[in-house]
Structure formats: C-alpha cells, structure tokens
Amino acid sequence: MAVEFKVEEHVMELEAFQEDLDKLRGKRGMLMQALHLAQNRFGHIPIPIQEVIARTLKVPMSTVYGLITFYSRFTLVPKGKCDVSICMGTACYIQGANEILQECEMALGIKNGETTEDGLFSLSTTRCVGACGLAPVVTVNEEVHGRMDLKKIRALLAELKESYEKEGEEA
Predict the structure, then answer these.
(1) DSSP E strand boundaries for 98-155
(2) Beta-carbon neighbour count of residue 35 at 10 Å?
(3) Which of 102, 96, 95, 85 is nearest to 133 (CA)?
(4) E strand or H helix at 111, and its extent?
(5) Which of 5, 27, 118, 159 has the greatest count of CB atoms below 10 A from its CB?
(6) Chunked in runs of 10, what are the mean pLDDT values of the chain (171 residues)?
(7) Model's pTM, two decimal places?
(8) Can you list the alpha helix ranges (DSSP code H) found in 8-149?
C-alpha cells in the first residue's frame, strides 16, 4: 500500500514535532530519540519527516534513512491496525517460520513488508523476539503467539479478520 504523506495535512503535528526536535539538538543519542518520537507521533517515518530530522539535527539524510531501515522498530510506511510479525530467528526458522510467513502472505494477499489496501493488516519479519522456547513465534501488535503451525496461523488470521470486520461494522 503506497501512502503519500501530505505535509499540509499534518501542519500542527509537524510544529509540535519540530519543537520536540529542537529540545534534542546536541544531546547524546539525539537521532535515535528523534526517530522514536517520529515513529510514535506519525506511525511511520516518511521522507518529509526524515528531511526535518536531518535538517534540524544536522545529520546526513543517508544516516537517518540508514537507521530507519536497519532497526525493525521503525517503518517507512504506515503499519496496519493489526501488525503481524513472523520471527525468523534460528529457532523459529528451523521450526517452520518461513512456511508460516508464506501462509500469511497468501491469506492476507500481501508480501512481507506490506500493508493491506484497507489498512487493517501489516506483515513483517523480525530477527528474534526472545521467545525461542516457543518457536516458531508470531507476534500480533507485539503480543506473542508461540508454537505456531499452519493450522494455528490460519485460525489466528481468520479470528483477527473477523474481529476487525466486526469493529468496522460497529464504527
């Protein structure tokens, strides 16, 4: 799902963000703090926000972009309401995480790193969530679901879809 970030729709948020950035200037770890602020405030860190960060903190755009793409906590595109992440750490991988990822891609109609057109689901992978004893692990909005298999992931996704569809009908 390609979503354009329209600066004019976020003027007040950007002003508040700029004030927060100004307070960070010169502090140790300012760039990581700025990225966390941006991710939390905007839900993702699009190019216009990266430019504000780079300009304000006087760091190269390549450094800002490099950190965003290195750390899985940060994202360039908005995540869906339901963020599904497959652990691809060694224990999970050898227990079938790749097959679970393929099942999720098929069931949701998106690839790893994408968000569904309706904005409900995002799919991603992560290196390790630290729950190796529960391998393979899937997290949904950071909630850990362990000992996944194809049957369990199908059931979980169906349950989530139903839950979000009901939520949409009630709104």
Answers:
(1) 121-126, 138-140, 143-145
(2) 20
(3) 95
(4) none
(5) 5
(6) 73 92 91 95 93 96 96 86 96 98 98 92 92 97 96 97 80 58
(7) 0.72
(8) 11-24, 30-42, 47-57, 61-70, 90-94, 97-108
